[in-house]
Amino acid sequence: MMVPVRCFTCGKVIGEHWEEFKARAASKEGDEDPAAVLDDLGLDRHCCRRMFVSHQDLVDVVSPYQ
Ligand SMILES: [Zn+2]
Hints:
The protein is mainly alpha-helical. Helices cover 41% and strands 0% of the residues.
């Protein structure tokens, strides 16, 4: 689905960084190391980092069925 606005564990606002993370690290070519991008975005805690690393964008796949 959509990336959560806040980290489930600590509540830090993370949703604003998703588009940049996807563009820089989650592309198929993999221009940058995802860990370096997360450091650059200021996501230091592993609870926030797992939100991005484990996220799968399914909103466009699922939305026609709602
Ligand atoms: Zn967190």
